[in-house]
Design a protein that fits this description.
2 copies of one chain form a homodimer.
Chain A lengths: L18 E6 L2 E8 L2 E4 H6 L16 H4 L3 H16 L2 H4 L3 E3 L4 E3 L7 E4 L3 H11 L16 E3 L5 E3 L4 E2 L2 E4 L8 E4 L3 E2 L2 E7 L7 E2 L5 H4 E8 L2 E2 H7 L7 H4 L2 E3 L4 E2 H4 L3 E2 L19 E2 L2 E6 L2 E4 L10 H8 L11 E3 L14 H4 L7 E2 L5 E2 L7 E9 L5 E12 L3 E2 L4
Parallel strand pairs in A: 6-23, 8-17, 9-27
Antiparallel strand pairs in A: 1-2, 1-5, 2-3, 3-4, 6-7, 10-11, 12-16, 13-15, 13-23, 15-17, 15-18, 19-20, 21-22, 21-26, 24-25, 26-27
């Protein structure tokens, strides 16, 4: 048994080495997780353990490291792998128990984009909202549909989520009203974190995905379905999504997910040239959605119709530049069965089919005090497990209207 | 005649004092414009001329100043007004000719939101796209429709705009294609710059607009109509807008626009309580759109159905927090006549009615090499003119596809 094995939280062995930002009694910094410890990268750099990267000492965020690009990401990863597998003594001075650290948002979110790339999810939403006329939009198989979300309300796992207020019009014959959302939902997604930026007027090809994207996080793109239904025509979701988006505290490097590569679904009709992948693959990330502790769904990421490489190519196909810290999420991950959907809208079929949780209580949408936790794992080398960090959040109702002046 | 009068560029007298960021032979800094000069605020602060603000020295952006909030904004404005009206001698050491400076993006754009608040524009777009069935969406008179844009591609006036590529499907019976946009358009808008942020879960009331918003810029929200038509269902515009958004280099303080306050249009039906304004007003900003030098339109900002105070209240009505540097734009400003529209889509009625420019050439959408300049003025105290900075951009075609690896 190696020193870093953590029976209580498997998946954080040296195959993983996800990055995070933390605050502890000793100060703030950036780290990689190994077992049930954090390896303080700033301290390690100052001790000469990760050589001359210059990206960690006195940094409170991963931004500088993310900007370095793939050759440096790989060099640092190899160095840390050597360190942690070389025995505990050398790294002991720069370790701290993860229980003694508070994890923070790990990077500055530049722009946040949310896609809509699960065919099962898109069809389910269509069936729920337009029974008998369900179909994909004409553009859906030709491009990964997406939109910009609010970067300033991306929060780290563990942050409470204040139930949003907003306008809704549940009855088309009555006027709209303004109040707390009554159909508050989750969206279980996988997010991708851009490290290396790109220049304006330059499309990033599908083959360049791993040169620009550093790693992945889990995402809960909280959604107020009643607000969304009323606001979204014709410019898309806005306040229904902008109140909070939670991400896991750990950014798992793409290199840790390499062993989880699997073929991606076939695409028919064939996509246009700029979306073609010479080496098309998905990541076999298996998610689990817990509602107050009860596993209600196990969304399979490998079923997504559009891959993260295609999403990145599409995002830049008009010449929009990338910046370090750009975050783009896959869209709700839903597999083919009800036990694999990534939203409660689908799980409870638009609110018509409640689920029963482990405590015997019944739910359709989120109630105040509810906690949702999304976890995810991939298979690492030689059958090891690579864990994504959980993304968890609790619904609170502490609404404050700013006092009139 | 005062020392700061600039016959070639009226509107930059002491009634205005807009803020900017610059680079010159002497270095980078932030400044206010007065006449044909910039008053270097960093140098002024170091010389003790603007007292203890601490927001300017060694700053290259307005971010620190914006975050200070309204009492400090007003105190600094009063101090600078005293300085520039007190004679040239005192300020001469901290002046530089505007011609010797390169103006830069004046603040870090946090989140960018674009609204859709001109009734004339919304109806024109509906008439063009759905002839015979034109109407406003059911939500349009109940809330200011808006969506998030891409903050990372907001550029300063003067930056070239690379013609975007993208998918379009001009013929529904043929497959989509990928290529340069053939329907590249402008949107003349007014943008509002948030200085003071707000807390998550706190709605900012309409009456608190001037506590949070520092000032205004002109915006050209470049739009690729062919990309937009194909991509926008069901999540709204994405790549059709995300390639570039140009803003003027000067942020005009709201205090400089106080004399331009006029009644805003009546709203029927009455809006819900959180959008009611105890003191409802518009700003009488008169815009002009020049296409290769020819004035093709004069959009009147005072005709907007939703005011910037209502837009801010809506934006935060779900509890989304504001950050310093948040930018929100009004949406295309179109008045009731063809000579007052803020887009070429409307000016040339969907491409069916070309306009003739001053050189005798004909246009519907933008051609490579075309330059569009939007200017705007308001009336200041005692009949003076307050100029918004121009926002100008030229269309270039320097498309680069990243070489395959």
């Amino acid at each position: 048994v190696s020193w870093y094995q953590d029976a209580a939280a498997p998946g954080f062995g040296p195959e993983n080495l996800p990055y995070c930002a933390f605050t502890s009694a000793g100060g703030a910094g950036v780290a990689v997780r190994i077992g049930d410890h954090l390896l303080n990268l700033g301290a390690a750099e100052e001790a000469g353990l990760v050589a001359e990267a210059g990206a960690f000492a006195r940094e409170h965020l991963l931004d500088r490291f993310l900007a370095l690009g793939r050759p440096e990401w790989r060099r640092v990863r190899e160095r840390i792998t050597d360190l942690v597998t070389g025995g505990r003594d050398r790294v002991a001075p720069v370790l701290l128990p993860v229980a003694d650290a508070e994890l923070r948002l790990p990077f500055t979110v530049a722009d946040y984009v949310d896609f809509y790339s699960s065919e099962h999810h898109a069809m389910n939403m269509s069936r729920i909202l337009r029974p008998g006329q369900a179909s994909l939009q004409p553009n859906w198989r030709h491009l990964p549909v997406g939109y910009h979300g609010r970067a300033g309300t991306v929060v780290v796992s563990g942050a409470d989520v204040v139930r949003p207020w907003g306008q809704s019009r549940p009855d088309a014959d009555s006027p709209p009203r303004y109040g707390p959302s009554a159909r508050l939902d989750v969206e279980a997604e996988v997010g991708f974190v851009v490290g290396l930026g790109s220049r304006t007027g330059q499309a990033v090809g599908t083959g360049d995905f791993r040169d620009h994207v550093f790693g992945a996080v889990l995402v809960n793109d909280w959604s107020a379905r009643d607000l969304q239904a009323w606001e979204y025509q014709p410019l898309g979701p806005f306040l229904a999504k902008s109140f909070a988006t939670s991400i896991s505290a750990y950014v798992v490097p793409l290199d840790a997910l390499e062993p989880a590569r699997v073929p991606a679904p076939d695409q028919e009709p064939p996509v246009l040239g700029h979306l073609v992948e010479a080496d098309r693959y998905a990541y076999d990330l298996r998610l689990a959605v817990r509602w107050n502790g009860t596993v209600v769904s196990r969304p399979p990421f490998r079923t997504m119709y559009w891959t993260p490489a295609q999403q990145l190519a599409h995002l830049t196909s008009n010449g929009a530049r990338l910046r370090t810290g750009d975050l783009y999420a896959s869209g709700t991950v839903s597999g083919p069965t009800r036990a694999e959907v990534g939203s409660f809208m689908e799980l409870c079929w638009g609110g018509t089919e409640p689920v029963t949780l482990g405590d015997g209580s019944s739910r359709t949408f989120l109630e105040d005090g509810d906690t949702v936790t999304i976890s995810g794992t991939a298979t690492g080398p030689a059958g090891t497990v690579v864990a994504m960090g959980d993304v968890t959040g609790r619904i609170v109702s502490e609404w404050r209207s700013q006092s009139a002046k």
